[in-house]
Amino acid sequence: MSDPMRPRASLRTAVVWDVLKDALDRRVKTTGRDALDVLDTGGGSGNFAVPVARLGHRVTVVDPSPNALFALERRTAEAGVADRVTGVQGDALGLFDVVERGGYDAVLCHGVLEYVDDPAEGIRNAIGALRPSGVLSLLAAGLGGAVLARAIAGHFTEARHALTDPDGRWGEGDPVPRRFTTEQLTGLVEAAGVRVDAVHGVRVFADLVPGVLVDTEPGALEALLKLEAAAAEQPAFHSVATQLHVLGEKRGTAEA
After folding, report:
1. What is the pLDDT of residues 36-55, one digit of tens each?
2. Cβ atoms of 186 and 196 closer than 8 Å
3. Could you tell me if 113 and 138 are in contact, meaning their C-beta atoms sit under 8 angstroms apart?
4. DSSP 75-138
5. φ/ψ of residue 224, rounded to 5
6. Is the predicted pLDDT of residue 85 greater than 90, yes or no?
7. What is the spatial distance between Cα 188 and Cα 126, in angstroms, rounded to a whole number?
8. I need a labelling partner for 99 at 20 to 30 A (CA). Which of 114, 212, 217, 223 fits?
């Protein structure tokens, strides 16, 4: 899995990729189909779409950026999976203008809810694209991780501001429009008709560890990856993770 597993990049994707791959494998067994239909909303240049396609699945990437879709086309060609990945321009709030409702075995909604005007509508659309018993993989910015990062950097006023701001922003210069707690994300998902199967904290330590240590200390990257994986499932660490990952299943009858 060279795309999400590159050194350093793996710290941002390894936990989510391992959970997602297992979920897709289970879906294959449930449906009896080797190739699943996967929708990646906000999938950009294919950080997840390419490795998912390498598993043999058909992936549709929806992204509002023409530049990202151009990069996706080039990347899929280089990876030899261009025949299994389709890129279309669009966004989560206008999702059914460009894709089929109820047409996918799995939907990835990674780094989307932070930026849409209406997160509840965005998640409803993502779930609306799923077939019954389909898999939802939701990844969004976590409030606690931002607070901790600002405090460790010595920006105590900004850290406190993020704690009290309705959108979890630390100030006017904050590039992220919105952050979530675990309770907020799982509430959105459950209200839209998905059973939450697991919650994971992503980048619990990776953004706090000096890069020079990871890059130069022998074995540091591998050890940090193992630590991230071990902490990801521990609820105590969800409140300080940079991102939160929610894995769920759409309520309904499984398809044959």
Report:
1. 999 999 999 899 999 999 99
2. yes
3. yes
4. HHHHHT-GGGEEEEE--GGGGGGTS-TT-EEEEEEES-TTTSS-HHHHHHHHHHTEEEEEEEEE
5. -70, -40
6. yes
7. 12
8. 114
Give the residue ranges of DSSP H helices in the chain: 9-31, 49-54, 66-79, 119-128, 143-152, 156-164, 182-191, 211-216, 220-232, 235-238
Specify the CATH number of the domain 9-142+180-249.
3.40.50.150
Beta bridge partners, 63, equal 89
- Amino acid in the structure at residue 209: V
pLDDT in tens, 230-246: 999 999 999 999 999 99
- Lookup: tokens for 231: 């902490």
Residues in the chain: 256
Measure the CA–CA gap between 233 and 202, rounded to whole angstroms. 9
3-state secondary structure (DSSP) of residue 218: coil
Predicted model pTM: 0.91
For residue 223, give every residue at least 6 positions away whose Cβ sits within 8 Å of its Cβ, in sequence order, or none.
Answer: none
Tens digits of residue pLDDT in 134-184: 999 999 999 999 999 999 999 999 999 999 999 999 999 999 999 999 999
What does the alpha-carbon distance between residue 112 and residue 30 come to, in Å, rounded to a whole number? 28
The two three-digit tokens of residue 120, written as one number? 């509840």
Q: Cβ–Cβ contacts within 10 Å for residue 92, how many?
A: 24
